[in-house]
Amino acid sequence: MASGYPLRLFAFTIICFSSFSIAAAQAGKSDVCPRAENEFTAIQRRADVNDPAAQTALASCYDMGMHVKPDGKESIRLLTAAANQGYAPAEYELGRIYLYGRGIPVDYAQAVLWERKAAEQGDPRAQRDLAFIYERGFGVAADPAQAAEWNRKAAMQGNAEAQLHLAKGLDEGAGVSKDTEEARKWYAEAARQKQPAAQLELARQSAGQGNCPVAIHWYKEAAGHGQAQAMYELGRLYLGKCGPDRGKAFTWFTIGAQFGSSESKAEAEGLARRLTLAQKKHAETAAAKWIKEHPGSDKEEDEEKE
Q1: SS3 of residue 2 by DSSP
Q2: Could you tell me the CA-to-CA distances from 118 to 84, 262, 301 in Å, in that order?
Q3: pLDDT digit string (tens) for 218-234?
Q4: For residue range 123-156, what is the model confidence (pLDDT) as tens digits?
Q5: Which class for 198: exposed (0-12), middle (13-18), buried (19 or more C-beta within 10 A)?
Q6: Beta strands in 168-275 (DSSP E)
Q7: CB-based contact 179:170 (threshold 8 Å)
Q8: Which of 15, 79, 243, 265 has the fewest Cβ atoms nearer than 10 Å?
C-alpha cells in the first residue's frame, strides 16, 4: 500500500474504532439460541417471566430448530412479545421478518415501524436496514437524504454495509454533498472489514491512479470473497498498466472463468494461444492452487438477494 495512505486514514480509523466496539457489543451472543441444554432451559424459564432478551434468544431456537421443533409462528410470537417491551434486538429481527417476508407476507409498513424503533435506539443493523428502505422506497417515499443520514449513523458504529453505501452516496452526491475524499475513507473502512464491493471499488480507484500495488492488493482481497468481477479486472490489469504479465493475467482469467465470469473465460481462451505450453501449465497450476484455497463460500449476505 502507498506509504502515505494509512497515515491519512489513521485519525479517521481511531474515531470509528470505539463506535465499532459498540456495534460489536450490540451484536453479541446473548440473543442467540445457546447450544448447551442447561443454558436453553434457563432461557426458557426467563422467557416464561417475560424477559425480552430470553424471548429473543428463544425465538432464534424456534427459528433454527435447536432444542425444539422449528416453528416460525412461535418465533414471531416471542419476538413480538420482546419487541413490545422496547427491546431493540427483537425490534430489529421482527422488522426484517416483515421486510423480507420470512414465514409471513411482506409488510413494509410493519417493517418500517419496527426497524425505526430499533434504529432510534441506536441499533446499527436496523439503521442500515432503514437506510435500505429509504433507498428503495419500501413502504415510504424513496428519500436519498434519509438514506444517507441513517447510513451515516450505522457507518459511525462500524456497520460495513452502511459504510459502503454511504461512500457510494458521497461519490455520487446522492442525498448528501458530493465528497470523493470522504467517500474513499468510508470505502477503506468497509474494505478493511472485508466488504467485497468496497474492496473492488478501492481497487478500481487505485488502478485509475496508477497505483498498482494497492490496486492488486484490493483486487485480490475482493477476489478472495468470490468477486468474479475482481478476478477479471485483475487479469486485465496485468495485461495493461500493471504488466504486461501474460502468465498472471491468464491465471486470473482462469480463476474468474471458474467462478462464472464469461468475460474471464473469453479472455483466457484468447490468451491461451499466446502462451507457451510451460507458461500455460504454470498459470493453470497457480489458478488451481488459488481456487482450492479460496472456494468463495464466505460471501456476505447480499441485500439484493434478500
Answers
A1: coil
A2: 11, 42, 20
A3: 999 999 999 999 999 99
A4: 999 999 999 999 999 999 999 999 999 999 999 9
A5: buried
A6: none
A7: yes
A8: 15
Tell me the CATH number for domain 5-192: 1.25.40.10
How many whole angstroms separate alpha carbon 67 and alpha carbon 45? 14
For 197-305, the fitting CATH number among 3.30.870, 1.25.40, 3.30.200, 1.10.357 is 1.25.40
DSSP 8-state code for residue 304: G
The boundaries of every CATH 1.25.40.10 domain in the chain are 5-192
Q: What gap in Å lies between CA 162 and CA 151, rounded to an integer?
A: 5
d(CA 75, CA 269): 52
Is the torsion defined by CA of 185, 301, 224, 234 positive or negative?
Answer: negative
- Average pLDDT along the chain: 89
Only one residue has cell 505450453, namely: 277
Give the SS3 label for residue 237.
Answer: helix
Q: Looking at residue 303, what is its pLDDT? A: 60
Distance CA 233, CA 253 (A): 9
Q: What is the CA radius of gyration of the chain?
A: 23
Predicted local confidence at residue 254, as pLDDT: 97
